[in-house]
Design a protein that fits this description.
Blueprint lengths: L1 E5 L2 H8 L10 E3 L4 H15 L5 E10 L14 E9 L3 E4 L2 E4 L9 E3 L2 H13 L4 E8 L7 H11 L1 E5 L2 H10 L4 E10 L10 H23 L1
Parallel strand pairs: 1-2, 1-3, 3-10, 4-8, 8-9
Antiparallel strand pairs: 3-9, 4-7, 4-10, 5-6
Helix pairs in contact: 1-6, 2-5, 3-6
Length: 222
C-alpha cells in the first residue's frame, strides 16, 4: 500500500472526497513546512514501514515566472516532480541565495522515483488529465514577491515551489522508499495578491489526481 501525505487537513480532505473509506493509517497530514513534515513522516514510517511500498505526496503549489523560462505552469495545472531541491538552504543575500557547499554530509536535492513518475503520468493521461513535470523547489518561507520567485525558479530551473516536498523526499530516501509528488497550481509566485488564488479548486484537483494514481498503482501491484 502507499502512504498518502499532504501538508494540511484541507488538502487531505480533498483526497478523502475521492477515496472514502481508506485506512487512516495510510493517510498522513504532515503539517506545514519541512520541520513538521520530517518529524511526522519519520514517526509514521517507523510505525508502518512493513505495510508501505511507497509515498505519494500531494497538495498545492505556487508557479514560478521568470525570463527565459523554457516551460511555465498555469493556474490549476497538475504538476509532477522530477526532482525536489531545498531552495533557500544557504545564505540569503540581496537578490540571490548562495547555496551551501555540495560537500555537506546530507544532500539538498533529490531525484524522485522515475518509475512512479512514469506510472503517474500514464494513469492521469488515461483519465484525460494532462500534467507538467520538472523540478520543484521547497522553501522555508513562501515567496511573496515576483523577484524572489523568479530568482529561485531561475536558479533551480524549476516549475513551482512548496514547503514540504524535499522533506518527504529526504525521509523516503532514508527509508529506501520510492516517492511520487503531485501538486496543483493554486497561485502564481508574484507580488502577493491572494485575490487571484484558486486554492479551493487546486486542492480539489490535487486530491482527485492523488486518489486516481493511488487507486491504480495499488490495483496494479496488488
Amino acid at each position: 500500500m502507499y502512504l498518502l501525505t499532504a501538508a494540511t487537513t484541507f488538502e487531505m480532505d480533498a483526497f478523502r472526497n475521492h477515496c472514502a473509506g481508506r485506512d487512516e493509517d495510510l493517510l498522513l497530514v504532515t503539517g506545514v513546512g519541512p520541520m513538521e513534515t520530517t518529524l511526522r513522516l519519520m514517526r509514521r514510517l517507523q510505525k508502518e514501514r512493513e505495510r508501505i511500498r511507497g509515498v505519494i505526496n500531494f497538495g498545492v503549489a505556487g508557479a514560478y515566472r521568470f525570463p527565459g523560462q523554457e516551460q511555465a505552469a498555469d493556474l490549476l495545472d497538475i504538476c509532477l516532480a522530477e526532482s525536489e531541491v531545498l531552495g533557500d538552504f544557504g545564505i540569503c543575500l540581496h537578490g540571490e541565495i548562495e547555496q551551501f557547499s555540495a560537500h555537506l554530509e546530507a544532500p539538498a536535492a533529490f531525484t524522485l522515483a522515475p518509475t512512479l513518475l512514469a506510472a503517474g503520468r500514464r494513469i492521469l493521461a488515461g483519465h484525460g488529465i494532462s500534467c507538467r513535470s520538472g523540478a520543484f523547489v521547497t522553501v522555508n518561507c513562501a515567496s511573496g514577491t515576483l523577484a524572489r520567485g523568479a530568482m529561485l525558479g531561475r536558479l533551480h530551473h524549476a516549475l513551482c515551489e512548496n514547503m514540504e516536498g524535499a522533506a518527504v523526499a529526504r525521509v523516503c530516501w532514508e527509508f529506501s522508499l520510492p516517492c511520487l509528488e503531485i501538486r496543483c497550481i493554486s497561485n502564481l509566485v508574484e507580488d502577493r495578491d491572494p485575490s487571484g488564488w484558486q486554492l479551493d479548486r487546486a486542492c480539489g484537483a490535487a486530491g482527485r489526481a492523488a486518489a486516481l494514481v493511488a487507486r491504480h498503482l495499488e490495483q496494479y501491484h496488488d
